[in-house]
Amino acid sequence: MRFGVLGPLAAWTADGTPVRVPELKVRALLGDLLAHEGRPAPADRLAFDLWGDEPPGNPTNTLQTKVSQLRRALEDAEPGGRKLVAYESPGYRLLVEPDAVDAFRFRALVKAGQLDEALALWRGNALEDFRDEPWAQLFVARLNEERLLAYEALAGTLTAAELGELVAKHPLRERLRAAYVRALYTAGRQTEALDSLRDLRERLADELGIDPGPELVELQQAILRHELAPQRTNLPVPATDLIGRAEAVTEVRHLLDTSRLVTLTGTGGVGKTRLALEVARGVDNAWLVALTTLDRDATPAEVAALVLTALDIRDESDEPVRALVAAVRTRQTLLVLDNCEHIVDAVAEVVDALLAAAQDVRLLATSQEPLGVAGEYVWTVPPLADDSAAELFAARARAAGHDAPLDPAEIAAICQRLDGIPLALELAATRVRALGTNELARRLDDRFRVLATGRRGAPERHQTLRATIDWSWQLLSEPERTVLRRLAVPADGCTLEAAEAICGDFDALTRLVDRSLVVASGGRYRLLESIAAYAQERLAEAGEVDATRERQHAYYLDLAVRAESHLRGPDQQDWLGRLDAEAANFRSALDHRPAPRLVNALAWYWILRGRLREAVRAFDLALTSAPDPEALTWRAGILLLMGAPVDLATLEPGAPARARLFLGFACSDVLDLATGEQIVTDAIADLRASGDEWGVAAGLGTRAKQAYARGDLDLLASSAQESHRLFVELGDRWGQLQAIEWLGALADLAGDYAEATRLHENGVRMAEQLGSWPQVADHLTWRGRIAMLQGDFGAARSLLDRAHRLATEQSYGPGLNFVVLEQGLLARRVGDLDEAERLLGSMLADGQLHPTPLATIYDELGIVAVQREAYERAATLHGCAAATRESVGALLAAGERVDVERAMAATKSILGAHRFASAYDRGRNLHAGEAFALVGESPQRTSM
Question: For residue 421, what are the domain limits?
C-alpha cells in the first residue's frame, strides 16, 4: 500500500490502483496518522483533531469505529496484507515503510540530489483537502518549506518563466528572487531585473521592516555596472518534450559535477544527442559542436577549428588545437561534442589537450563508442523503459494526427519489437494514422520498408531506420561486419564461447560492443531486433546463411552432448540454467537441422524442465528423415507423461538403457503395471552391468513407485531409501525428489502425516529451487492430499489448485490425473457431490488409468452413492474397487480406509447382509467396460 500527502490525500495499492477511503472523518483520521510520520498518535489527540470542542457522546468508542472503518478500507483493497493501523499505547500508529509515503520518498530523493524527480512527486498543495485543519497546518507548512528549498536548490536550471511563477507565490524568498533576476538579466531583460529587485526591497521594508541581504545588493550593483555576463549558448530549442529521460538527465548532470568528460554511448537512434542537449540546457555557458559536418578522415586541427567556429571565436593561426586551448583556458564552459564515432581518434586528441590545460572546461560527448582518453566517464544511454516507450509512441502518434484510441497491448508489442529505441518509435508513430497499430505491428517483419518515411529537417542518417543503421555499418571494418552479420543467427543472444564458435573474431566482437552495435550483458551478447534484421539482410547478401547456421548447429550439438552428464549430478541446477538461456538457440538449431543426436541429447533437459510439448515437436521433426530407436523411446515416454496413448509394439529395439528406464517410469502411471515393471527390471539389469550408478538409482526410484502401486511396503521402503541414498551421494536433486516422493507416500499409507508433510514440504522447496515444475506439482498434490486427510480443507483446496495450474501449464498428464483425483476426493469430503462425481468420472474417459487410482475412484463414488441413498449401487462400486485393488495388490491408505469402511458398514446395515453381498459380488465380477458404464449412470435415477 502507498500513500500520498503531496497533494490531495490519496492511497493506492501496490499496482497503482486508487483506494477509496469512504467518509470524511475516516479520511481525516488517515491524514492525521500520516501527519504523525510513523509516530503513535494519542487517542485523545486524534479524537480532538476529528471533532474539536464538539465530541460525540463516547469519543473513545466512536474513534475505535473510525479506526475499524479505515482498517477495513485498506485491507479490502489488498486482501491478505498485514494490518496497517495498529494500536500502540497511548493511541494508534500507521505501519508503513518509509518509501510507501510520497513525503518520505521526496525527502530521500532531495537528500540524494535527485531534485527533479523529487519535485515531480508533488500533485498539488500538501494535504490540499485538509490543509486548513489545525492538526494539518504544521505538517503542511513544513512540507511546503522543504518543497521551496528544493526549488531554490534547482533554481539554476529553471527558466525565467518558471522562476517568475515561484516568485509570484513566494515574493519574499531572497534566494528565489536572486535566481529570477539573474534569469531575466541573462535573457536581455535588464529593466525587468532591476524592477524585480526594487519590488523585493519595498516588500521587505513594508512587511518585515528589513533590507535585502548582501547577495542581492551585490547582484543589483553587478547589473548596474554591466558586470553580470549574460549567458551565451548556441543550443537549439527542442521542438518536442523529452519523454522518459528525467532520471537520466539528473544522473548525467551529477556526473558532470564530478567528471570533466562524460561520454554518452549507445546504439544509433537511442537518443544520445537529445539527452545531451537536455542535460546542457541546465548548465551555464553550454555550446553544441555538431561533428557530423566533418569527414571520416578529419584531423584534430579540423576538429578544433570546428569547435572554435561553434564558440564564435575567430582564429587564423596554423595551430587550431593550441588556439582552442588558449581561448577556453579561463572559461567555465560546457562543450557538447555531438556524434564523435566517425572521427573518434581526432576528437580524442583534441579532448585530451583540453582536459590537460583547460581545467574549467567540461565536455559532454555523444558517440557510438567511447573516446578512450584518461578521465573519461562512459554512460550508456539505454533504450526507453516499456512505460516510457509507450508514452513516447502515443504522444508522437497523436502529434501525427492519429486521434482514435490506441490499444495498450498493441502499443506494447510495437515498442518491444522496436527495442524501445526512440528514433524507431517516432518513425513508427507517423505510420499509425495510415495503418493503425495492429497492421503496423504485423508489418514490422519488413520494418525497413515500413519505416522508410523520412523526417523532414532531420539529419540524413536519422531520416529512416535503415539510414541510421547504414551510418553505423559504414564505420565498420570488414572483420567487424563479418561478425555482426553472423551474430544475427543466434536467437536471443549467446555466450562468448558460442559467439566465437559461430562468428569468429573475438577482437571484432569486443569492438562491436564498444561501438554500441552489440549488447553485452550478463555474459551474453545479442543484437537489438532492428540491428538483427539488418544483419540478416547483410548475411544473405554475403551468401553465408547456410554456413553460419551449420556452425550454430555444430556448437549447440556439442553443448547439448556436454550437458548430458552434468544434468545428472551436483551441477544439475547450474547446467539447467545454462541450457535455459540457450533454449531459443536450440530451437533455431533444430529448425535448421533436426538431427536425432541433438534431440536425444536434449531429452533429459526437456523432461526435467517439463517442456514436454516442445520435446515432442522436436522429436517429430528429428524422426521425419529416418527412425531412431533411442529417439522413438524418449518420444514414447514423453507422450505417456502427457497422457497421450502409445503403442509400445511400434518401438524399435536397441534403445539405450536410460531411455528404456524413462519409458518404464512413464508406463507406471498409465499402462498395465506388469509392462512397466518388466521394462524397468530389464533396464536396471543393463545399468548395473554397465556400472551406471545414476541409472541404478533412478531405476530404484521407479521401482519404489511401482511397489506403491502394488502395495508392497517392504519393497517400497527399501527401494526408495536406497535410491535416496545413492542420489544424495551423486548430488542429483531431481533423483532425490523422486525418492522423497515415495518415502512421503509410504508415510501417508501408514497415517504418519507429520512425516509425510515434512518430506513433501522439502520436496516442494527442492523442486522450486531446481525449477522442476512437474515435481513441484506432484509434491503440492501430496501436501494437499495430506491436508485434506487431516481435515484442513481450505489449505487442501489452495494447494491442489496450485498443483492443478502447474500440471496443466506443463502438459503433465500423470500429474494432472493425480491432482484431479485428489480434488474429487476433496469435493466429496466438503459435500459437493456433483463436483466429486464430475471430477472422478472425467478421469475414466481415456481408459488408461492405473488400477490403484481406479480403485480409489470406485470407492469414492461408492461413498457418494451412500450419501445419495443409492445403497445397492454403493455396494457394487465398492466391489469394483476391491477387485481392482486386489488385481495388483494395492493397499488402501489409512486416511481413506476409515471412510470406506464406514460407508460399507452403513450400506450393509440398510440392505442387509444378503443383498449387500449380492451387490458387492456383482461389482467384483464386472469387467472394466461394465464398471465404466456403471459409473456413467446417474445415482438419482437408479438404485442397484
Answer: 386-471
401 and 364 fall within a common domain: no
Cα separation, 156 vs 151, whole angstroms: 9
Rg (CA), the chain: 38
Amino acid making up residue 776:
V
Q: Whole-structure pTM over 0.85, yes or no?
A: no
Give the single-character DSSP code of 207. Answer: I
Residues 291 and 351 in one domain: yes
250 in a structural domain = yes
* Residues 316, 268 share a domain: yes
How confident is the model over 843-884, as pLDDT tens digits? 876 556 778 888 899 999 999 999 999 999 999 999 999 998
CA distances for 478 relative to 508, 510, 571, angstroms: 9, 14, 40
Does residue 213 contact residue 200 with C-beta atoms inside 8 Å?
A: no
Residue among 246, 310, 306 at smallest CA distance from 278: 246
The three-state secondary structure class of 439 is: helix
361's enclosing H/E stretch is strand 361-366
- The x, y and z cell numbers of residue 74, run together, are 485498506
Cβ-count burial of 820 within 10 angstroms (0-12 exposed, 13-18 middle, 19+ buried)? Answer: buried
pLDDT tens column, 137-186: 999 999 988 988 888 877 766 767 778 888 898 898 888 888 888 877 76
Residue 215 and residue 178 in contact, taking contact as beta carbons nearer than 8 Å: yes
Tell whether 135 and 25 lie within a shared domain: yes
Q: Provide mean pLDDT across the span 277-289.
A: 86
For the chain, give the percent of residues with pLDDT over 90. Answer: 54
Same domain, 214 and 278: no
How far apart CA 10 and CA 73 sit, in angstroms, is 13
CB within 8 Å of 779: residues ≥ 6 apart: 737, 740, 741, 744, 760, 761, 763, 764, 767
Decide which of 433, 456, 471 is a domain's last residue: 471
Q: How many domains are there within the chain?
A: 5
Q: DSSP string of 103-169?
A: HHHHHHHHHTT-HHHHHTT--SSTTTTTTTSHHHHHHHHHHHHHHHHHHHHTGGGS-HHHHHHHHHH
How long a stretch of residues is the chain?
944
The three grid cell numbers given for residue 887, joined into one nine-digit string: 488385481
